Amino acid sequence: TATAQSRQVVTRVPLLSVRDLTVHFPITRGVLRQQTGAVRAVDGISLDIAVGETLALVGESGCGKTTVGKAIMQLHPATAGSVVFDGMALGGLNKSALRKQRAHFQMVFQDPYSSLNPRLRVVDILEEGMLALGVEVSAAGRKKAIARLLDQVGLAQSSQQRYPHEFSGGQRQRIAIARAIAVRPKLIVCDEPTSALDVSVQAQILNLLKDLQLELGLSYLFITHNLPVVDYLAQRVAVMYLGRIVETGSVQTVLAQPRHPYTQALLAAVPALTGRRSDTVLLKGGVPSAAQPPSGCHFHPRCPHVMEICRSVYPEMTELEAPHTVRCHWVATSQ
Questions:
Q1: Which of 16, 42, 175, 43 is closest to 109 using CA atoms?
Q2: What angle (nearest 5°) sits at the alpha carbon of residue 206, between those of residues 52 and 321?
Q3: What's the pTM?
Q4: What is the SS3 assignment for 23?
Q5: Over the stretch 233-273, which tens digit does the pLDDT of each residue have?
Q6: CB-CB contact of 108 with 190 (8 Å)
């Protein structure tokens, strides 16, 4: 099946390796803008993405997953940690060296209405990256490449001379995807690429991303809060809560046998065809502030299985059956 094909990872060689990635935003006050604290948006994230693989990064709004994507793209400076892409550490590169690498990793943003320059025609939008990164030197080469790109994303050739406001949301996201693949990347960070679209259009965009992955051998970091999308598109999933990853594993394992109470709650919130799930886990309260995260396990104020150790000691990752890992005292003590 197409889903089975999409889960065939070409190789386990890591294309992207992220270790202990940390992004803190300073909180300043007063005329002198003295720092009084920090928003711990990302707090020690580690992940790998193999060649040809899709890793889904899942969590509630405000958990820091978009910041992870932007930090990997070098759009946000990291406070600590490393991002290694195709064997090269990106953090220490100067602007010139980073520009040369940018053709290899691109991003598709959540909002197709604000991510495209309204003053540029589609042909200019697609040509812009080629010119900036030196992908297609000749005008004839760019013309041929743009025609091919429009075919690949399912847009008519007449789209070239039109402006973004003349397209629907789904068509704009196709333009954004075409812009991303125009420079022949190896990795695309997809930040909620379907959440701003009508439900009827979402499946079309997901099918397009899957087809392009098979055709071009792309790797995806797919950022989402939509678990059915994860099941459809990804091979592995990492669940994120308040700046940290709390559970990782294959999509089949994590969705069928979630172990972290937060993952269980996320899955319980997904409507079932037979009505409310019998194993519903209700979350108490809202997501705490990343500026003042709870002590110990950040999830303990909302956890139905909280123990005394959870309030003071942050749990280490526990490996269940490889590659399934979970960060939870309750799970660790029940092993």
A1: 175
A2: 50
A3: 0.90
A4: strand
A5: 999 999 999 999 999 999 999 999 999 999 999 998 877 64
A6: yes
Which amino acid is present at 250? Answer: S
Asked whether the beta carbons of 37 and 99 are under 8 A apart, the reply is: no
CB 40 within 8 A of CB 291: yes
Using DSSP bridges, classify how beta strands 219-224 and 187-191 pair: parallel, antiparallel or unpaired: parallel
Q: Which residues of 151-183 are buried (b: 16+ CB within 10 A; e: fewer)?
A: ebbebeeebbebebeebebbbbbbbbbbbbbbb
274: confidence class by pLDDT, cuts 50, 70, 90: very low
- Residue-range domains of the chain with CATH: 2-104+185-333 (3.40.50.300)
Confidence tier at 5 by pLDDT (50, 70, 90): very low
DSSP letters spanning 47-66: EEEETT-EEEEE--TTSSHH
DSSP conformation letters of 263-294:
HHHHHHTSPBTTBS-TT--PPPS-PPPTTSPP
